[in-house]
Amino acid sequence: MAARTRYVSRSLPMPQTPAKSFSLIAAIDLGSNSFHMVLAKADQGEIRILDRLGDKVQLAAGIDEQRLLSEEAMQRGLDCLGRFAQMIQGLPHGAVRIVGTNALREARNRGEFIRRAEALLGHPVEVISGREEARLIYLGVSHTLPDNPGKRLVADIGGGSTEFIVGQRFEPLLRESLQMGSVSFTQRYFRDGKITAARYAQAYTAARLELMAIEQGLQRLGWQEAIGASGTIRAIGLAIKAGGLGNGEINVEGLAWLKRKLFKLGDVDKLDIEGIKPDRRQIFPAGLAIAEAIFDALDLQRMDHCDGALREGVLYDLLGRHQHEDVRERTLSALMERYHVDADQALRVETKALQALEKVADAWQLDDDLHRDLLQWASRVHEIGLDIAHYHYHKHGAYLIEHSDLAGFSRQDQLMLALLVRGHRRNIPKDKFAEFGEEGVKLLRLCVLLRFAILFHHIRGTQEMPRVQMQAGAQSLDLTFPDGWLEANPLTQADFEQEAEWLKRIGFTLSVR
Q1: Which of 75, 281, 294, 307 has its CA at 20 to 30 Å from residue 439's CA atom?
Q2: Residue 456 host element (H or E)
Q3: Residues 53, 40 contacting (CB under 8 angstroms)
Q4: DSSP 8-state code for residue 462
């Protein structure tokens, strides 16, 4: 694996925990069309694939007009995951990463499916944003292809969305995700399996309209090669090869020939073309229309297929997290610099918050790596809202975190981090924490620790701070300062007296002496 530069804020060293070493790691991609799993052995920064499993679940086909996932579609997915579960049985927490893409982004009742999937698999399921999906796709592609100089365009036609990335070597320079995919377009234009020129033209035009929003930005960057990931790209390339017009790549001549072939056949049941598997015939016309629209919008002549895609990217991202090449650190450093965070104060708060966590972790059941990560992240970025306005800056900061594209973070990560920032001062929105169920109780405890660390360093480093003893109860926290210190420092004393009143509102007792 090529050497990687790790970007961190110069004024804020990132505290690190020992890297974990897992003999086996696994990635599961809950796609809109297919579910895939890869099991791999990690050794010296490299990944060796041991096994692959996949199934055409077509989750996106089970989403109705109210954006609700049907029980039948859920069951198809759970049946597939039941087979995956046996393969990852016994793998420790942190060795498996499961990501959901567009279908789960869209489904309003995704929480029900996720709950059942997690119970089956024994590992958390993350729903990632379209741009995060694009980043991971590019990571998988860049680790699969030779490390050539120059820029490459990567396109991945999925079941519910299509991702585009322009990058150089291992770094994505532009990431985009559009709401068009082979399953969703099939539902819209080819539901009954009939293929006509008029229907194909509708699908093609819809794709061109989606592409208008990003085509100029992509073309401004330019590229030396175009790469396609996913089964749709592979199937089109193989079909063109079967027609004697290529060697597995997609080209303009082959697209035109294949489109004429589809019109002549007229029905997906007749798509008996080498390279198009029977379980892909139904969604093939929609995928072809999207591919042709991409070629025309971006003026492409050729697109080569790459086997690496989202699941391989998830594996390498997982490996990087455990070897201190975590993209989330780079993301937070960039966020801090963009919003002019006081790095020295952030480091003081982070250090104190983590010290406090060690003292109460057992009593408050905050023993998961994610708990430490969330507290660490929130300590670093809790003041980003000050760059917008001082008034309600905790709300501004929470909004920025919740609605920004943060590379490496799942949607759930961002929501939890945003809530910690929202609750770091003044009134605590207890109802928002309750939305996270049982995990919300632990999240609320993390918020209390963050608030303690911030108050402890209210003076912002201009005075020496004492050692404080901490004793945690289920709904209480007892703080003991050295004798006479609080009396000699009335501002800190007043801060904690006020804090006790804020916490009282959520049924939490803070005792300070």
Answers
A1: 75
A2: helix 438-456
A3: no
A4: S
